[in-house]
Specification:
This protein has 317 residues and is an alpha+beta fold. It is built from six helices and 14 strands.
Amino acid sequence: MNKQLNELPGYTGHVDDIDIHLLRGAYAIDGLVLKKRWDKSKYPFLHIDHTDLSIEWKSVFKGKLVGEVIMDRPSIYILAASADLDKEPSRESWTETVKDLMPITVNRLQVNQGKFTYLDFGASPDVNLYITGMQLTALNLANADKKGERLPSSVTLTGTSIGNGHLKADMKVNALKDIPDFDMNMQLTGAQLTSLNGFIKAYGKFDVERGSINIFSELKLMNGQLDGYVKPFIKNLKVLNWKKDKKEGGILQAVKEAVIGLFGKVVENHKTKQIATKVPISGNIRDPKTSSWKTFLGVLKNGFIKAFNQGIEGSLN
């Protein structure tokens, strides 16, 4: 197992222990760690406390030999400084590594108490965004049930974001395509904006004193064409703390935040005390000059940052 992990280009990895469960056709991995070779930080790309890989017996009785994977407490760390997707292993390399770990096709995936973290130490200030307590269930990934639908697989995801926001996502997927098709609805509700000030200062160049955000999004990817929208709702926004902002950023920064706060009040819905905007997301990820994954993440990141900034600044579409 350690040999296979270390043969993944650009990565080094190891496991602490493996237990075999012959009677139920399964084995378990304890302490799987995967790190980028050129990343000297203390954060691994992937760490999974416990993974159980087994035959999905209910599908065997339907004449399909497929597997199921249950991951307990997995953590993924994405560092902006080392997130050069042009240096990532090819899709074939990842596929071969996954096949070595699980020699039969995975039909069901379950994640318990997962964590996803995005870190940008090159921004000013540092950006630290995370989702904890993630629960994910993906069913019929190998289409073992033969539903005959264009999107035969289902994925549900819940979690808690920075700022104590509640994340929920539902997705229909065709995971058997080279570039999977999907239709996803996502919502993040009740996140406190003060907890996001590192992100806001880095990408919006101001901070907030009070407020909460709800984000709603729908995304569809069909045959490489990505379409959808991001709709943030800002509630009880307060940007200006004159004494604090004048001391930290000078008079010009204080004036800027006063203007942003005033404009936010102008477009605020006085019945709901919310500021709303809607930003479309669109793009074709079949770019021959770069990877589909890199194009997808670039379109998604730009769309969400634009929506977030417009929501904070009070632009109303």
